[in-house]
């Protein structure tokens, strides 16, 4: 595969923190503009604007998972955590349902692949966490474009 196929998972918390932060900064400016001669308005406006700026900065720091297939390699990236798997070692995939969805990869024999833990809480895990807003159909579409088949649900042949 020579083309790059990429999926950036959406993060609702990131969007909420960004919009709320920007709204608070604007509210702080409005609070100061209402009566710029009174110290209470200036103090309240500055306090609201600082809280909004901190919230917006924190929203920008939230890292979302990125799935990418290029140059014969499957790559999962979330901040500094990076997993790279040679494309020919992947036999199939499955999406774990739940509040926060996860992606599991299987080797060519059908066994789940093991990955190092995100925060070193465990020795390894068999899935890569996505976000709660990631739709399974979008992941299935991404994997179909990458050429990775889904794992069969039934054990009978």
Tell me about this structure:
Helices cover 36% and strands 21% of the residues. The chain is built from three helices and seven strands; from the N terminus they run βααββββββα. The protein has helices at 12-34, 39-61, 136-146; strands at residues 5-8, 66-70, 73-78, 81-86, 92-96, 102-106, 128-129. The strands form two sheets. Strands 1-2-3-4 form a four-stranded antiparallel β-sheet, with helices on one face. Strands 5-6-7 form a three-stranded antiparallel β-sheet, covered by helices on one side. Helix 1 (12-34) packs antiparallel against helix 2 (39-61). The longest helix has 23 residues, at 12-34. Mean pLDDT is 85; it is low at 153-157.
Write a concise synopsis of the structure shown.
This protein is an alpha+beta fold. It contains 3 helices and 7 strands.
Spatial order of the strands forming the largest sheet: 1-2-3-4
Kindly state the percentage of residues in helix.
Answer: 25-40%
Largest sheet: 4 strands, antiparallel
Structural class: alpha+beta
User: How far is it from the N-terminal to the C-terminal residue, by CA?
Assistant: 29 Å
Order of helices and strands: EHHEEEEEEH
Nearest-integer average pLDDT: 85
Uncertain residue ranges: 153-157
The DSSP helix count reads 3
Q: What is the 3D shape? A: elongated
Q: Please report the total strand number as a whole number.
A: 7
Specify Rg, calculated over alpha carbons: 22 Å
Strand residue content: 15-25%
């Amino acid at each position: 595969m020579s083309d790059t196929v990429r999926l950036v998972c959406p993060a609702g918390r990131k969007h909420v923190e960004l919009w709320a932060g920007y709204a608070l900064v604007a509210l702080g400016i409005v609070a100061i503009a209402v009566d710029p001669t009174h110290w209470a308005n200036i103090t309240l406006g500055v306090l609201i604007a600082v809280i909004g700026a901190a919230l917006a900065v924190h929203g920008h720091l939230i890292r979302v998972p990125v799935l990418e297939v290029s140059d014969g390699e499957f790559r999962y990236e979330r901040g500094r955590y990076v997993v790279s798997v040679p494309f020919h070692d992947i036999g199939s995939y499955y999406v774990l349902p739940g509040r926060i969805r996860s992606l599991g990869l299987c080797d060519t024999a059908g066994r789940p692949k093991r990955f190092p833990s995100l925060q070193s809480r465990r020795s390894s895990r068999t899935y890569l966490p996505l976000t709660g807003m990631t739709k399974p159909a979008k992941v299935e579409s991404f994997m179909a474009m990458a050429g990775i088949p889904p794992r069969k649900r039934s054990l009978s042949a």
